[in-house]
Amino acid sequence: MGFFLVLFLVLCAVAFLAGVLLNSYILFIAGCRVERMTSAVWFWNRAMTDFIFIVFLPLRFISIFILDLDWAKSLSNTVCSFHMFSSAFLLTALSVDRCILVARPEWAWNHRTPQLAFLMVLGMWALSLGFSLRYSDLLEFLFSRSRTSMHFHPDEGRVKAAITIQFLVGFLFPLALILIPTFYIVLAARTRRNRLIQSTKPLKILLGLIPAFFLCWLPYHVFSFLQISAKYPLPILDMGSAFACVLTYFNSCLNPIFYFTMEEEFLRYRQCGRNSQTTDNSGPELAES
What we know:
Radius of gyration: 21 Å
Largest sheet: none
Shape: globular
Distance between the termini: 53 Å
Number of strands: 0
Helix content: over 70%
Structural class: mainly alpha
Strand content: under 5%
CATH topology: Rhopdopsin 7-helix transmembrane proteins
CATH class: Mainly Alpha
């Protein structure tokens, strides 16, 4: 058990340091382009959710190993839930945005603006916060008399409902919604029907972000269902759940790697934008750059 505790601590430290540094850099780079580029709005907000999630990693560690700190557990669960919902929603929006850019370039030229993307992001953040506060029992803990107790435990039925809703709304439904536009983009890329995607760099980035998110969050949901279905405490489930949580933090470290590759895409768009023979099929992205 001591070995696994040390390993868990080392992994948390690596995820925390790497996540804070990488996402801070992404926030700085993408923040310089938010007002001009719609894509930068999506990536800046995803980096912001990753940064918030990583910053609260020490609190997650404390809530796992110090069971009496119920406020830390509630706050940590809220942040984790908010990150999961917001990341899933933003990834879905990014996939749909790319699909529209490929399928309807003329419409995207006239309507795809950073201001519209920003308004959509505000709606997704509000929706994510609503789901997180509604099903984490944080407000109930903070504003009820039970907050004076060091052994506050949420209702078992609400916990099961929260885990089910998190899986459906924060994992399964976004996965289904993402697959449809992604398949369309893949087919369009194979048939080369749009010059915007003749370079497969944006497609590779999208196909990297999607599996990384869902594969890293799948163990989290699996162990959550195993824990609520167990009739008695099992140390192996607690250990597996702890490492599943660490995997979700490493997902926030992987995302900046994909964002770094976007630099090549932005540079290529700038070069194409200087070419007067470039067609309007690349319009929205070229205009932004």
